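## tool: complex_structure
## caller: assistant
## args:
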Amino acid sequence: MPAVPAGRTRALRRAVSDEEKSQRREQILAAAKRVFARNGFQGTTIADVARAAGLSYGSIYWYFDSKEALFHALMEHQEAALRDHIADVLEATATDGEGFGPSAFREAVRATFEFFESDKAAVRLLFRDSYALGDRFERHLHGIYERFIDDLEAVLGEAQARGEIVEGPTRLLAFSVAALIAQLALRRLTTDDGLDAGVVADFVVSLTLDGLRPR
Amino acid sequence: MPAVPAGRTRALRRAVSDEEKSQRREQILAAAKRVFARNGFQGTTIADVARAAGLSYGSIYWYFDSKEALFHALMEHQEAALRDHIADVLEATATDGEGFGPSAFREAVRATFEFFESDKAAVRLLFRDSYALGDRFERHLHGIYERFIDDLEAVLGEAQARGEIVEGPTRLLAFSVAALIAQLALRRLTTDDGLDAGVVADFVVSLTLDGLRPR
Amino acid sequence: MPAVPAGRTRALRRAVSDEEKSQRREQILAAAKRVFARNGFQGTTIADVARAAGLSYGSIYWYFDSKEALFHALMEHQEAALRDHIADVLEATATDGEGFGPSAFREAVRATFEFFESDKAAVRLLFRDSYALGDRFERHLHGIYERFIDDLEAVLGEAQARGEIVEGPTRLLAFSVAALIAQLALRRLTTDDGLDAGVVADFVVSLTLDGLRPR
Amino acid sequence: MPAVPAGRTRALRRAVSDEEKSQRREQILAAAKRVFARNGFQGTTIADVARAAGLSYGSIYWYFDSKEALFHALMEHQEAALRDHIADVLEATATDGEGFGPSAFREAVRATFEFFESDKAAVRLLFRDSYALGDRFERHLHGIYERFIDDLEAVLGEAQARGEIVEGPTRLLAFSVAALIAQLALRRLTTDDGLDAGVVADFVVSLTLDGLRPR
DNA sequence: AATGAATGAGGATTCATTCAT
DNA sequence: AATGAATGAATCCTCATTCAT
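## result:
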């Protein structure tokens, strides 16, 4: 019991408290993700989030300043998770850095689909409900989207540099690929075409690389 | 008083009335389009629509059952306009029905971009605010989107039949092209990359037909 | 029924409507005065006002932008009534413009007490609840008070010019008299010292003119 | 372990505890005074007070039963300070108990202004925010005010007894002087008329003693 | 004693919709 | 047909207070 100086104890207690606080935030974010994904931003009340999180609605405001702030935090969370996942996959495949076909681009697309396949709620949040906030959120959402496109552009730019793909407007190209991925992932939420996520990913890569015209 | 039988008069009056009613509906829809496009569905009040239409807001309910019904009607209106435009263009180019390159597919994509270029409000309504209604609207929106894809699929199916493009899942293909068009048109609302709409249309066609890999 | 051109009818109807609207505002202001005077600004809910006015609380917002706007309007109303009353009395007594004792100053003070005696709610609103709004309202309240003091200052300035009262800082003097009146009127709300309002008014005048020291 | 009987220790501990408790109360009251004076009663949260006091806000409730109780205690504190100050001044000047002009009444008024000049926060608390509590607080405030007036009345009564001032309703007189002082002190918070506090005090005394009419 | 997380009553405000005129 | 006043459900957010630790 003693042995530990008072100051140390207090510091310890605070550390624990901080960790708990962080856990609560996670808990709320997880709950928010579920309900926002189901009902959209406008269709969700703070009370809904609180109920899903097992808290009273007043408590939400202990951890987040407003409903909007909660949504922002959630988006950031999702974005970070997505980019981390893609970075991990790219890093893992970087070592075999051979030709283009089996390399970075394909892997990036596949990783993205994988991520979305395993987290359908994230798809709705990032590509659907985000618009709900309108202009107030546009800058933030734009940022997220742009950073995703940045990553793709980097991959495509490298491929161009190696002559593996033709010259062209890389930004528009990256945006197009991002759009394809996002919309196809979104489509999978409501439409079942019996295709595996990997197949769809390959479809995107194949379409993008070789196009439709017979060679 | 009149020499016209009562029944006839009433019928006539109703006919006139119906026509006026139809005109009023158009007037309201036009106003609704402007304000919904500017402020989104949630951000627009019935009073906003009424003001823009030059009517009192109570009157809106004479022509539409609810705010949501108004939005649905507006969507249908937009859809019809889009499909008419595309059909017109395809019909016009159908006569010279030669090879694929300069033909139907290219024309369909170009026509779609043209349409959206000339009506930015339609872009926001169809591809952005629609989501705002969430599940309640999803089926309807889905229907619109699917019919758009139907048209594209028909065009692509024909091209496949003629051997102009490779075999593949035409539905997914059509969806992908639709997604590309929609997202690129949407992007043009907020991001200016200095590219002409025709150039972007050709970019989509070129990417879709020939892909990125050097031949 | 006919005989009146359509345009005229409409104009007439609108005029009636405007009048009714104005009546409703009066009705709400009267109700607001009662409840604000009883419970203070903070202690009154919009629902209280609505109930007292016999309306639903949503309706209040048809006539006033916010609770605060309602309070401001009420203050202005009270101020106008007070100044009108004083002006009326001064005008009525202006004709006999003789010496100072029975003249303007005495009449102004008496008129003010009369007004407050006949409208106790006004006293609370002007001198008590006004503070409730804090800094947001301070400027407005300050304005009201200052204009009241302006009027007193004018009266006192004139008396000084005629040599009826000694030289001195008129502004401070006017403020002092205003403060005396306000606080004594306020006191009458809670404390019954058995004195008639007229007696108190004369007390103020006498104190102010001759002071306490025996002559 | 100790040589001191348990009972004694406990008693000692409690005594120490009580003293500490008292200190804490002072600390909280001092902080409360600052924030209440700045933001008013309604505009101040318990959290604000706690932050200013360097405590967690839960702790406030260890020392005070409620926000309102805290405010009451604060008022009492202020009242005591004010009356002590006046009593001190009067006592100090009592010894030279000569004529009235330079004596008790003048000194009391001056002392009061001095007090308020040196503690602007007290002015706001006593004469402005007090009203914020409405009827719940009225009796208490009334009490404070009345005791202040009691003191003034005693001074004035004595002067009357000595024939230094004319006969009259001493209670009303005392109230009037108190009102003048309070409102003029309050005015000094927002309006700078370039006058020294002592000058204003003398103005009050002069007005009250000699009035405005030329002798 | 002290902390600060949790609670939930309370209230202003918005706005779709109804309805008397 | 048209108007616009009236209604009240719905919801965000604040903050005094409680309480487990």
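## assistant note: Residues 18-60 of chain D form a domain with the Arc Repressor Mutant, subunit A fold (CATH 1.10.10.60). Chain D touches chain C at residues 39-40, 42-43, 128-129, 131-132, 134, 138, 142, 163-166, 168-169, 171-173, 175-176, 179-180, 182-184, 187, 190, 193, 195, 200, 203-204, 207-215 (CB under 8 Å). Handing back to user.
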